[in-house]
Amino acid sequence: MLPESVILLGGNASDVSKKVGDKKEWEGILLPDLNESVASTCEHAEVPIVHVAENDVNAELTHEAISIASPDILIYSGSGGQIVSEKTLALGPKFLHMHSGWLPDYRGSTTLYYAMLEGKLPAVSAIILDSEIDTGPVVAQRHYPRPSTEIDIDRVYDSAIRADLMARVLVEYKTTGQLPAVESQFLHRGTPYYVIHPILKHLSILSLRQGRCQ
Question: Lowest-confidence range among 98-102, 149-153, 168-172, 196-200?
Fold first, then answer.
């Protein structure tokens, strides 16, 4: 099960992260190999990369790449807090996104840490993007074990649980020809969260050693 192509915005597909260990899985969840570049992964899988010299998902060059690819489903993994505009969403495909928070309770940024601060299990919600922040219809949701203190939470654990739910959703899509049941959110519920303060982030990580934050 492979994507037809990968649209890479800005950056360098040859870049790799610094050495992060070589564990293959944790608690039955496959972990990403961040010692391998995006370009190498795609080359091994024979997946073509479309390079776009823009970091903005809403730029005209990005629109052109999406239009040429003409996908039925576009898996969007954004960075930098960008909101996909209505013009971009109107290009046609469903924008499937994995949000690391249980919706509608945890909308916004770094919600994984806020959940752990409140003694909740981390979670991922698969949603179809709309033009607001994490308010789109929910396709699937799943809770995950709290991360080990030995795992890089931001780059390894967070990526792994998002990828795990994404794979589950896409397996169902491949089997049935359609996404799992879509449910609209209760928009009056939930709280928007902003990038967590470093002290709160540290307390959240400490709570992993203590069982939960006091």
Answer: 149-153
Write down the pLDDT at residue 199.
Answer: 94
- Rounded CA gap, 30 and 160, in Å? 6
Q: How far apart are CA 126 and CA 144, in angstroms?
A: 14
Express each pLDDT in 79-99 by its tens digit: 666 889 999 999 988 999 999
Could you tell me which residues are beta bridge partners of residue 1? none
Task: Name the burial class of residue 126, with classes exposed (0-12), middle (13-18) and buried (19+) by CB atoms within 10 angstroms of its CB.
Answer: buried
Residue 212 and residue 214: Cα distance in Å, rounded?
6
Is the confidence at residue 78, as pLDDT, over 50? yes
Q: Summarize pLDDT for 167-194 with one digit per residue, the tens.
A: 999 999 999 999 988 888 887 788 889 9
